[in-house]
Design goal:
It contains 13 helices and twelve strands. The chain is α/β, with parallel strands linked by helices.
């Protein structure tokens, strides 16, 4: 098969090349790297559906002649790209959510769209545990103490930074998918007691509560791992924060839309919430320090949960495995549009 692999500034072609060694021996694989920033303004209906992309449909289309399999991570896949090859049989996007792909256009052409769900699960679970430890030990406040030029004169002054172990504390997981399950595995090793709220799965081996309200009232640490839906936008709002056990901590490594930041700001200011760790926050119209960082018990990172070399290589390996299955006539595993196409 003739395969085009498109890298970008987040996932350069070297990750694909490392994973595609076996495929290169049996197929014609070509690589291209798109620019760091998009150089086109969406002008068609297909282009308007995209977000978080790099490069332009035109530069991809110019390389599509005879291509049977297209592989991207962040490059834009539109009508123009899809129509540039009459031989196209499979589209692959090394992301869990292919926001840079016109899924309707792919499906309309009867093409399966392969994605890589859970490729970042290990990395996000690691970061979640790091956040739990940082909150339990009061690291945000201790770090700022040093950043402001202070020093401890003796051991007794260190009592102001007294923290807690994770052991014997209750961790409430909101969502028990690939990341939530991995967080649970890690948390058990730290001696934590687990609660799960997820109405869509059976959390076998873990105590599962029927309502979010029950979890909020019992957990010492609450970690969000739910998918974004219209129903769960601002699921952690003012009412939810009122139900949280006083002195509890909130961790969000999922999506910023799950949390009402006005309500979170108020809960932190009042002291009802002991602290928060956030890998995702809503974008603001103005530059400068995010308002939630004014609280000494908040730690935040700029959406780095899945930003590891291992995550990118895992995504490339998942795509390589799917292409191998496709070439061998075997069923594909991670087809986003399975109901709309024959696989």
């Amino acid at each position: 098969m003739k395969i085009l692999v498109v890298g970008d500034s987040f996932m350069p072609v070297r990750y694909f090349a490392q994973a595609f060694g076996g495929i290169e021996r049996g197929h014609e694989v070509s690589y291209m790297q798109v620019d760091d920033a998009p150089d086109f303004r969406p002008s068609t209906r297909s282009e308007a559906k995209l977000r978080e992309y790099q490069g332009s449909p035109t530069e991809l289309a110019a390389r599509m002649s005879g291509i049977e399999v297209l592989v991207v991570q962040g490059a834009p896949v539109t009508d123009e790209v899809l129509d540039a090859s009459r031989d196209l049989k499979l589209v692959c996007c090394a992301r869990g959510g292919p926001v840079n792909v016109d899924v309707e256009a792919v499906t309309a052409r009867g093409l399966p769209l392969v994605i890589t769900p859970g490729k970042n699960a290990e990395a996000v679970a690691d970061l979640t545990l790091a956040f739990l430890i940082m909150l339990a030990r009061g690291l945000p406040r201790a770090q700022r103490f040093l950043e402001e030029g202070h020093q401890l004169r003796n051991n007794w002054e260190g009592a102001r930074f007294m923290g807690s172990d994770l052991r014997d504390h209750v961790l409430g997981l909101v969502g028990f998918g690939q990341i939530g399950r991995r967080v649970a595995q890690r948390a058990r090793a730290f001696g934590m007691t687990l609660l799960v709220y997820d109405p869509y799965v059976d959390a076998d081996g873990v105590e599962q509560v029927a309502t979010l309200e029950e979890l909020l009232g019992r957990a010492d640490f609450i970690s969000l791992h739910a998918r974004v839906t219209a129903e769960n936008e601002n699921m952690i709002d003012a009412r939810a924060l009122e139900l949280i056990k006083p002195g509890a901590y909130l961790v969000n490594t999922a999506r910023e839309t799950l949390v009402d930041e006005d309500a979170l700001d108020a809960a932190l200011a009042s002291g009802r919430l002991a602290g928060a760790a956030l890998d995702v926050m809503r974008p603001t119209e103005t530059e400068g320090r995010h308002r939630l960082l004014r609280h000494g018990n908040v730690v935040a990172t700029p959406h780095i949960g899945g930003a590891t070399h291992e995550t990118l290589l895992q995504g490339a390996k998942m795509i390589a495995e799917e292409i191998t299955r496709f070439a061998n006539g075997q069923p594909l595993r991670n087809v986003l549009n399975r109901e709309g196409v024959a696989t």
